[in-house]
């Protein structure tokens, strides 16, 4: 047979046809066994490959999380550590340093009536050394030093006296003021300072107690401080009044910040205007807490938030916080190399500078031609962003309920697209 002649020289010419067939059968069987082994290995490698892809995605997600700082996320600057400080988004100003022309200034001024006067007069004539103690001097210059007095506790003792009536000889006792209820206690000024440091300056409980002990010798316990805070809160006007006024405002800012309450994660919901701030904590960050607090369900003005989806459940108008948008764009540009995000970051800064200039000139509204140029630039960046996104993957197997998961870039684009319809401002600053 022709194929026998083309086989390798490993087969001997003296081999019979049956021997050659037997050798081919054995070789075919070995190939089949190797094929079965390869299939088994492929079957084992496929799950491992999927696992490796999943681990790669997880590692990439962790790397993104570790690379976030105060400029690309909502993390505070104190969490940046000792690494290189993030670049500031502020652009260099062309103005000179110091006070600008027309600035009123805040130079420290002298008080008209000082609390204490210290005279500095010479004791002898600097020329002939004549004694000048009995000679009346004239004030030629005066300076003032504004300082704090020595901070210490002032002990004011209340004494109840008994007075015997000279007529009927009845012994009548005086009475302590209502607020003096213990043999020794701290007065209202110490209590006010403690509450101010803890609530106004946001010092922790332990540090507030340390400050009072070191500054004025008032050694109070943490329980005493918390009791004073509760007493001060009970004297204030109910917070429902603040919530009512906040609800009636034209512009409302909303945010949620994680806090720990008795070691458990809760959320501090902030609703504030230019003059009022309403704080309320809840175990939920989303709509359950907002319904319970009751501000956003009643609000009918324009809300400013950070793209948290729970706000979209309420019918008021919305704007996105510019600071959050800048951080989101910076994160996409640096971590995912999204070029359109860098362009959007620059666009937002340019738009903010333009609005500042319009405000300085007291221009009520921009010219239609200039507005159209900003809108066109905005849409060009969005179009480039959508074009850079990969096509959506087809769902394998059973379809999941709800919205399909999208990338952070796609979510940001979808949030930016409808904002151009806002006629008053493209983007509002928080």
Record keyword descriptors for this entry:
five-stranded mixed β-sheet; disordered C terminus; alpha/beta; disordered N terminus; 7 strands; 430 residues; 11 helices; Transposase_IS66_central
Question: Secondary-structure blueprint of this entry?
Answer:
Blueprint: H1 2-5, H2 17-67, E1 162-164, E2 171-173, H3 188-200, H4 205-216, H5 222-235, H6 239-247, E3 251-261, E4 264-272, E5 277-282, H7 287-293, E6 302-305, E7 317-320, H8 322-335, H9 339-360, H10 368-387, H11 408-416
Strand content: 5-15%
Instruction: Please state the CA-atom Rg, rounded to the nearest Å.
Output: 39 Å
Order the strands across the largest sheet as they lie in space: 5-4-3-6-7
Helix run count? 11
Biased composition (Basic and acidic residues): 62-72
Region (Disordered): 62-110, 389-409
Protein name: Transposase
Domain Transposase IS66 central: 185-383
Short structural summary:
41% of the residues lie in helices and 9% in strands.
Description:
The longest helix has 51 residues, at 17-67. Among the domains are: 185-239; 240-318, no CATH class; 321-390 and 405-430, no CATH class. It starts with a helix and ends in a 14-residue tail after the last helix. The relative contact order is 0.05. It has helices at 2-5, 17-67, 188-200, 205-216, 222-235, 239-247, 287-293, 322-335, 339-360, 368-387, 408-416, and strands spanning 162-164, 171-173, 251-261, 264-272, 277-282, 302-305, 317-320. It is of the alpha/beta class and 430 residues long. Residues 94-107 have a biased composition (Low complexity). Residues 62-72 have a biased composition (Basic and acidic residues). Residues 62-110, 389-409 are annotated as: Disordered.
């Amino acid at each position: 047979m022709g194929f026998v002649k083309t086989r390798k020289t490993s087969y001997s010419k003296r081999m019979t046809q049956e021997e050659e067939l037997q050798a081919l059968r054995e070789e075919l069987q070995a190939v089949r066994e190797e094929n079965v082994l390869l299939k088994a290995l492929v079957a084992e490698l496929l799950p491992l490959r999927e696992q490796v892809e999943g681990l790669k995605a997880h590692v990439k997600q962790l790397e993104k999380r570790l690379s976030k700082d105060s400029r690309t996320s909502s993390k505070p600057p104190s969490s940046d550590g000792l690494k290189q400080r993030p670049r500031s988004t502020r652009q260099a100003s062309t103005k000179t340093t110091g006070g600008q022309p027309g600035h009123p200034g805040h130079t420290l001024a002298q008080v008209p009536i000082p609390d204490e006067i210290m005279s500095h007069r010479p004791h002898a004539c600097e020329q002939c050394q004549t004694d000048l103690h009995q000679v009346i001097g004239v004030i030629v210059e005066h300076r003032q030093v504004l300082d704090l007095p020595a901070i210490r506790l002032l002990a004011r003792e209340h004494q109840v006296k008994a007075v015997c009536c000279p007529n009927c000889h009845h012994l009548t006792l005086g009475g302590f003021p209502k607020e003096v209820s213990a043999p020794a206690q701290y007065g209202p000024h110490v209590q006010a300072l403690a509450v101010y440091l803890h609530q106004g300056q946001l010092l922790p409980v332990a540090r507030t107690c340390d400050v009072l002990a070191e500054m004025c010798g008032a050694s109070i316990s943490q329980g005493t401080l918390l009791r004073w805070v509760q007493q001060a809160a009970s004297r204030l006007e109910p917070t429902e009044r603040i919530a009512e006024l906040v609800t009636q405002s034209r512009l409302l800012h909303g945010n949620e910040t994680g806090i720990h309450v008795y070691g458990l994660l809760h959320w501090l919901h902030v609703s504030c205007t230019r003059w009022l701030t309403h704080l309320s904590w809840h175990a939920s960050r989303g709509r359950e807490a907002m319904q319970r607090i009751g501000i956003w369900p009643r609000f009918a003005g324009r809300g400013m938030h950070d793209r948290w989806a729970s706000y979209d459940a309420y019918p008021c108008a919305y704007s996105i916080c510019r600071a959050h948008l800048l951080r989101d764009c910076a994160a996409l540009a640096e971590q995912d190399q999204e070029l359109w995000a860098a362009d959007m970051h620059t666009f937002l800064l340019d738009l903010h500078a333009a609005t500042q200039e319009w405000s300085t000139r007291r221009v009520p509204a921009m010219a239609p031609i200039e507005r159209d140029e900003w809108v066109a630039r905005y849409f060009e960046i969005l179009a480039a962003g959508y074009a850079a996104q990969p096509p959506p993957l087809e769902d394998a197997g059973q379809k999941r309920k709800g919205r399909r998961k999208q990338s952070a870039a796609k979510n940001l684009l979808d949030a930016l697209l409808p904002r151009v319809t806002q006629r008053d401002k493209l983007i509002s600053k928080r």
